[in-house]
């Protein structure tokens, strides 16, 4: 089957992929902008070309057969390659010009965005990128940015949001602090340590109480609205703080505490509804989604 893929019609494969991912002919047809009879004929033609049945019909739903599951693995890779090719081609278009303003947290802006920005500019050399390091979604609403990377889904109806990944992290403390006060063995031990706050202390307390870490406001002796400053305070041995594992890996002076306690947070990509169809905004939006999901 794998060797036969190179001889098949990509339109038929694309129809199969959309049908497999939506489990519905009507939903797949809407996704591809086709009529349902056209999409059904393309899927049937693919089954005929391969001499296998790819779907079983169960009521209104379609269930992949074993052959369909095998094919889906390979066609997904083809689809991803096609999307990347299209992104590269779009980036080279002469009309993809102008500035795109991206807003992200200070830590994301400093740690992740340089490499991502380099990739965007390599694919779309006519663009210019401005980074706005802030955690305030209002910068989008005031049109001070075109795209935002956020950890909370916005509820404004004029914004379009895509969840690109569920990131993970842990609680970290400086090795110097742990050498001084010892390693916490339980959540109660952790709650009794000094803490560094990131922004809203009350929100941090609520989050940790949900994790059964009974920390109190008195534990937060230092903190900052700026994530980079708060992280440096923690690195100076002034308290425990949560951090994305990828960021913490860059700080050998920090140590994970209670490694079984996982901190998870979503990564949302947000833009204006009406400019989501702008070629340059859409290109950067898709490149950001690909990079942040990796």
UniProtKB/TrEMBL annotation:
Domain HTH lysR-type residues, every copy: 8-65
Pfam families: HTH_1, LysR_substrate
Organism domain of life: Bacteria
Official protein name in the record: LysR family transcriptional regulator
Keywords: DNA-binding, Transcription, Transcription regulation
GO molecular function ontology, one term from the record: sequence-specific DNA binding
Family: Belongs to the LysR transcriptional regulatory family.
InterPro entries the record matches: LysR-type_TF_proteobact-type, LysR_HTH_N, LysR_subst-bd, WH-like_DNA-bd_sf, WH_DNA-bd_sf
Record GO biological process: DNA-templated transcription
Source organism of the structure: Sulfitobacter aestuariivivens
């Amino acid at each position: 089957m794998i060797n036969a893929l190179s001889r098949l019609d990509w339109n038929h494969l694309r129809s199969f992929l959309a049908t497999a991912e939506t489990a519905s002919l009507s939903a797949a047809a809407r996704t591809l902008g086709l009529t349902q009879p056209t999409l059904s004929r393309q899927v049937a033609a693919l089954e005929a070309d391969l001499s296998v049945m790819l779907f079983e019909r169960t009521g209104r739903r379609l269930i992949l057969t074993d052959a369909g599951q095998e094919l889906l693995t390979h066609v997904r890779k083809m689809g991803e390659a096609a999307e990347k090719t299209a992104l590269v081609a779009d980036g080279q278009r002469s009309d993809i010009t102008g500035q795109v303003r991206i807003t992200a947290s200070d830590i994301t802006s400093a740690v992740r965005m340089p490499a991502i920005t380099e990739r965007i500019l390599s694919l779309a050399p006519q663009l210019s990128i401005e980074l706005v390091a802030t955690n305030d979604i209002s910068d989008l609403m005031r049109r001070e940015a075109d795209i935002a990377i956020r950890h909370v889904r916005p509820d404004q109806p004029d914004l379009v949001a895509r969840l690109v990944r569920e990131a993970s992290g842990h609680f970290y403390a400086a090795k110097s602090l742990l050498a001084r006060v010892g390693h916490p063995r339980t959540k109660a031990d952790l709650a009794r340590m000094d803490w560094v706050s990131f922004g809203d202390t009350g929100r941090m307390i609520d989050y940790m109480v949900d994790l059964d870490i009974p920390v109190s406001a008195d534990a937060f002796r230092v903190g900052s609205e700026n994530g980079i400053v708060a992280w440096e305070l923690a690195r100076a041995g002034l308290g425990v703080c949560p951090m994305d594992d990828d960021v913490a890996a860059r700080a050998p002076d920090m140590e994970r505490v209670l490694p079984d306690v996982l901190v998870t947070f979503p990564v949302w990509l947000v833009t204006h509804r009406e400019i989501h169809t702008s070629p340059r905004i859409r290109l950067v939006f898709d490149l950001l989604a690909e990079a942040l999901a990796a």
